[in-house]
Amino acid sequence: MSHGKTKGWLSDRSGVSLVELIVTMTILAILASVIMPMMQMTAVRTREIELHRNLRIIRTAIDDFQKSYKKAELEGKIPKSLDKSGCPETLQQLVDGYDFGGLYPTKKKFLRRIPPDPMNPPQPGKEPEWGMRSYADKPDSTTWGGEDVYDVYSKSEGTAIDGTKYNEW
After folding, report:
1. For 6-45, b where at least 16 C-beta lie within 10 A, e where not — what string?
2. What share of the chain is helix, strand, coil (3-state, %, to 5)?
3. CB neighbours of 62 closer than 8 A, spacing ≥ 6?
4. Rg for the chain (alpha carbons), in Å?
5. Cβ–Cβ < 8 Å for 50, 144
6. Which own/partner contact pairs does 62-66 have at CB distance under 8 Å and 24+ positions apart?
7. DSSP three-state, residue 78
8. What are the CA-CA distances from residue 51 to residues 41, 42, 58, 94, 108 (Å)?
9. Distance of alpha carbon 96 from alpha carbon 109, whole angstroms
10. What value does the mean pLDDT of the chain take?
11. Which residue of 4, 81, 88, 169 is surrounded by the most CB atoms within 10 Å?
12. What is the pTM of this model?
C-alpha cells in the first residue's frame, strides 16, 4: 500500500474548479432573481395589510365615539345640537378622551395612540398624518373642513397591488 495516494474519488488536488464555481454562481443568481421580487411583493403586501388594519382601527374608534356621543344626547348628558355630528373634533381627541357630559365616570378614550399610515410614514418625532374628512365634506373631498373627523384616508398617492389607490381605501 502506498502512502502518497488517496483511495476512490479523492485526489491529491483539493478545491473547486472554475467551471464548478461558475455553475454554482449561476444557480445562485437565478434563485436570487426569483426570490427578490417575491420578497419585495411580500413587503408591499404586509404594508397594505397594516394600512387596512390601521384604517379599520381609526374608523371603529370614530364610530364608537359617535355612538357614545349619541347615547349622551339621548340620556340628556349633552344638549342636542343640529350643528354637531357627534364625531370627534380631532383624531387626538380619540386618544385624549372625552367626558360626554358625565356619561362615564372618567373621560372615555378610544385609542391609545394614533396608528401611523404605513404608506405615508411620519418623520421621526412627528405625529402620524392622515387625510381627514368632516361630516359636512363631500365623500371624495381631499381637504378637511375642520369641523370634526368623520373619516380618514391615506395621504399616499401610491397604487396598491390590486390597482386601486391607497387614498381611496
Report:
1. eeeeeeeeeeeeeeeeeeeeeeeeeeeeeeeeeeeeeeee
2. 40, 5, 55
3. 87, 88, 94, 110, 149, 150, 151, 152
4. 29
5. no
6. 62/87, 62/88, 62/94, 62/110, 62/149, 62/150, 62/151, 62/152, 64/110, 65/93, 65/94, 65/98, 65/110
7. coil
8. 15, 14, 11, 19, 25
9. 6
10. 89
11. 88
12. 0.78
Residues whose CB is less than 8 angstroms from the CB of residue 134 and which lie 6 or more positions away in sequence, other chains included: 85, 87, 144, 145, 146, 147, 148, 149, 150
Give the model confidence (pLDDT) of 46-70 as tens digits.
999 999 999 999 999 999 999 999 9
Residue whose cell numbers read 405615508 = 120
Euclidean distance between CA atoms 48 and 169, whole angstroms: 10
User: How many other CB atoms are there within 10 angstroms of residue 116's CB atom?
Assistant: 17
Total residues found in the chain within this entry: 169
Contacts of 153 (CB under 8 A, 6+ apart): 55, 130, 131, 132, 133, 167, 168, 169
Residue pair 86/66 in contact (Cβ under 8 Å)? The answer is: yes
